[in-house]
C-alpha cells in the first residue's frame, strides 16, 4: 500500500526498490536502497524535485528485496516506467 510522501517515517528499514507516483498514479521516480527508511529520512536528493512536481500529493510504494538484486531491478523498473525524474537511462543488463 503506497504511503503519502508526508509519512516517510513509516518506511521499512529493509532493502528494496521504491517508486514515487503523482496524484494521478504516474510513476515519476524509481530508486533503490539498502535501507529504504534511512534513504528517505536522512534527506533524499530528489525530495525537493518531487515536492516541486507534485506537492504533498506524491506517494511512495516499495518492494522489499535482497541487496544483490537491487541494481538489476532498478534498471528494469526505470526502463519500464521511464520516470521523468530519473535523468539517465540505465545500461541494459
From TrEMBL:
Residues 13-87 form the GIY-YIG domain. PROSITE patterns: GIY_YIG. InterPro entries: GIY-YIG_endonuc, GIY-YIG_endonuc_sf. SMART domains: GIYc. This is GIY-YIG domain-containing protein. The lineage of its organism: Bacteria, Bacillati, Cyanobacteriota, Cyanophyceae, Leptolyngbyales.
Amino acid at each position: 500500500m503506497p504511503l503519502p510522501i508526508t509519512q516517510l517515517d513509516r518506511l521499512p528499514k529493509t532493502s528494496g526498490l521504491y517508486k514515487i507516483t503523482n496524484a494521478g498514479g504516474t510513476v515519476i521516480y524509481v530508486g533503490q536502497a539498502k535501507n529504504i527508511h534511512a534513504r528517505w529520512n536522512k534527506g533524499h536528493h530528489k525530495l525537493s524535485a518531487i515536492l516541486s512536481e507534485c506537492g504533498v500529493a506524491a506517494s511512495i510504494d516499495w518492494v522489499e528485496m535482497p541487496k544483490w538484486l537491487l541494481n538489476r531491478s532498478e534498471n528494469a523498473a526505470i526502463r519500464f516506467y521511464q520516470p521523468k525524474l530519473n535523468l539517465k537511462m540505465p545500461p541494459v543488463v
